[in-house]
Design a protein that fits this description.
The chain is of the alpha+beta class and 275 residues long. Helix content is 50%, strand content 8%.
């Protein structure tokens, strides 16, 4: 089994533990991410896992599912409305347990595949490791919106966060191509510190670089923070431009949040999540 599958399980388990602490009224609370509710976010993750399991099970079935999703979005471009219809309004604790069960089934299916497997996706197809990492990245990044509204500090980052940083670094060219822009010849060098003593580095350009906290970089790459709201040090024109378009997830180009619009609330009566 590749390590990324264990990491995906652990990421989901951490979020599941936190969401079991929610009160009934919390599920309908709007977040700073496009005003999606907690239910909307979990529906989005669940449908992503359904798509992933379908891709891992049958290329033909995945093509049919994607065609159906496109047809539904032609009726209404709202991903939130499409997800609500697709899941018949499922929400709250019942949705939570459905999501967790589906993700475990996905991990079991991925575990049975050879490491060199490539799988179709909504964007470019991916190798098994990156495909699994993409599901962890989605889980980690969308969870941030819920932690922020609840005013709860996330559990200390674990070494598995390296996967999210890796996908952030490796999608440098994607952020440009997805916008029809020429890809700079050299990506910025990256140097990230972690609270558990590791330093992660990706060396490329000598003139452009991004340095700082690993969590902050992952937040920027997943568009859960604006770079101005972090302590990251960005040097060079290419690095500065990248920070304005960075996007490590598939789909149409998205604009990173404006400064000061994504943050952890100061007020909350929610219990702290267990590590």
């Amino acid at each position: 089994m590749i390590q990324q599958i264990d990491d995906l399980r652990a990421e989901a388990a951490e979020l599941h533990r936190f969401l079991t602490l929610l009160r009934p009224g919390d599920w309908s609370r709007a977040t700073q991410f496009k005003a999606w509710t907690f239910d909307d976010i979990l529906r989005h993750l669940h449908i992503g896992d359904i798509m992933a399991l379908t891709s891992a099970s049958s290329a033909g079935a995945f093509a049919e599912l994607m065609a159906d999703i496109r047809r539904e979005r032609e009726k209404s471009p709202s991903r939130v409305e499409e997800a609500r219809r697709r899941l018949n309004g499922l929400g709250g604790p019942a949705l939570l347990e459905r999501w967790r069960g589906m993700l475990e089934k996905l991990c079991d299916t991925l575990s049975a595949k050879p490491p060199e497997t490539r799988l179709a996706w909504a964007g470019p197809d991916m190798g098994l490791r990156m495909f699994t990492t993409a599901r962890q990245m989605e889980t980690w990044s969308h969870a941030q919106a819920i932690y922020d509204v609840m005013g709860v500090e996330r559990p200390p980052p674990a070494p598995r966060l390296r996967n999210v940083a890796e996908i952030g670094v490796r999608t440098f060219g994607w952020a440009y191509r997805n916008r029809g822009l020429a890809v700079p010849p050299l990506a910025p060098s990256i140097r990230l510190s972690t609270p558990f003593g590791e330093t992660w580095e990706w060396k490329a350009s000598d003139s452009d670089s991004v340095e700082g906290d690993a969590v902050s970089f992952c937040q920027i790459a997943t568009q859960t923070r604006n770079v101005a709201d972090t302590s990251l040090v960005v040097r060079g024109e290419t690095a500065k431009q990248w920070m304005t378009i960075i996007q490590c997830f598939a789909g149409q180009p998205e604009t990173p949040p404006s400064p000061g619009t994504r943050y952890r609330s100061k007020a909350s009566s929610a219990p702290a999540p267990s590590p």
